[in-house]
Amino acid sequence: MKHIPHENLRALIREIVAAAGSTGDEPQMVADNLVEANLTGHDSHGVQMIPIYMNAVRTGGLRPNQHAKIVSDHGAIVTIDGNAGYGQVIGVEAMDIGIARAREHGVCVLATRNTFHLCRIGAWGEKCAEAGLVSTHHVNAIGNVGLVAPHGGTAARLSTNPYCCALPATANNPPFIADFATSVIAMGKVRVAKNAGTQVPDGALFDADGRPTTNPDAMLEEPKGALRPVGGHKGYCLALANELMAGALTGGGTGRPETEHREYTVINNMLSTLIDPHRLTDQPSYERELDAAIDHVRSSPLEDPDQPILMPGDPERRTRKQRIANGIPMPEPAWRELADAAVSVGLTEGRANALIAGTA
After folding, report:
1. Average confidence (pLDDT) over 39-59
2. pLDDT, position 262
3. Which of 119, 261, 282, 353 would you label with 61, given CA atoms 20 to 30 Å apart?
4. Nearest to 30 by CA among 11, 17, 48
5. Is residue 273 helix, strand or coil?
6. Predicted TM-score (pTM) of this structure
């Protein structure tokens, strides 16, 4: 197990992305976004995505140096096309547009479609919260085969279709950032388990024959199985709602055999609603109620005295502090894949090792 300082990992990812054809600020934006996912504990959405990204650049599913393009503009309602560009770039540019419109109109309904992997959706909720806005985000994915079975089924029909809800900080509480896949675990966590040599939790997977399994290979080898939806029928309903709102309502498309493109392609669509809370209520009232609600929830007697009641975003903030101090953990198989991705775009393994060691 390596523990890599985050600055060194950023430097390596920046060089890999630049070697794959990205120019300007794009390599840094991709590196920052992926490493921040690792820092917050979401290794499934961190630098382990780089091998997939590099393969997608090679096959044409990911197009470097693209920018958010407004294709429909009705003031407070905006549709953006990402032209299969890096989600780290399109996401920032789309949220900047949405934030500006919400400040102007009090609200913005923002459709972002045809964007390569938007990574950790909580990052976009955090960006809105930092701007003082409340936001919700519904996401689906097309381009590759489905991953998640519907409730009552055993074959994949949906993506992991994440949902995010974010509220700004108050004087007494940090931002509320709820961000979760609508499957029991995200697909990236299956890869994390494989690289760590561990099993996935009970109740997370079906194998290709529709039998429950804890073996991550069920999702990584052909024929593939399926993830279960989180929370039974309720999580399935939310996953399907995200599929329809992000896929049908944005015009980006829903996940079906007809919208599958090629291996390594992960195209996201996202429907976001950004709200200026002070157009609805005054700031003192908003902050008072938010703080009172959080205090009330935290006042519940603990089931386990060693496990405090957490708010959405607390685990990420805690993990980020630990990993900034101690480095980002990376199992040897994950490092091997990352080093191979570096070599695939022209870096030497020696250069990759020097970058993560801080000796380059």
Report:
1. 95
2. 66
3. 353
4. 17
5. strand
6. 0.94
Distance in angstroms (rounded) separating the CA atoms of residues 68 and 352: 31
Statement: residue 88 has pLDDT above 70: yes
User: Whats the size of the chain, residue-wise?
Assistant: 360
> What stretch of H or E contains 213?
strand 212-213
Tokens of 160: 């992991």
Token pair for residue 168?
């700004």
DSSP string for 232-265: HHHHHHHHHHHIIIIIITTSS---SGGGB--TT-
The answer, yes or no, to whether residue 63 has pLDDT greater than 90, is yes
Rounded-to-integer distance, Cα 64 and Cα 58, Å: 11
Question: What is the Cα 246 distance to its own chain's centre?
Answer: 15
Q: Which tokens belong to 270?
A: 């996202």
Burial of 34 (0-12, 13-18, 19+ CB in 10 A): buried
Q: Which of 126, 73, 116, 62 is nearest to 95 (CA)?
A: 126
Tokens of 150: 């519907």
Residue 232 is encoded by which pair of tokens?
Answer: 């039974």
> What pLDDT is stored for residue 121 in this prediction?
98
Convert the pLDDT of each residue in 350-359 to its tens digit: 999 999 999 9
Which domains, and CATH codes, for the chain?
A: 1-59+327-360 (1.10.1530.10), 71-183+232-300+308-322 (3.30.1370.60), 185-228 (3.30.60.50)
Q: Is 250 exposed, middle or buried (0-12, 13-18, 19+ CB in 10 A)?
A: buried
Average pLDDT on 207-227 reads 94
pLDDT in tens, 196-212: 899 999 999 999 999 99
CA 284 to chain centre: 32
CA distances from 186 to 13, 87, 204, 283, 349 (A): 22, 18, 10, 36, 30
Q: What is the Cα–Cα distance from 106 to 23, expressed in whole angstroms?
A: 35
Q: How many CB atoms lie within 10 A of CB 257?
A: 7
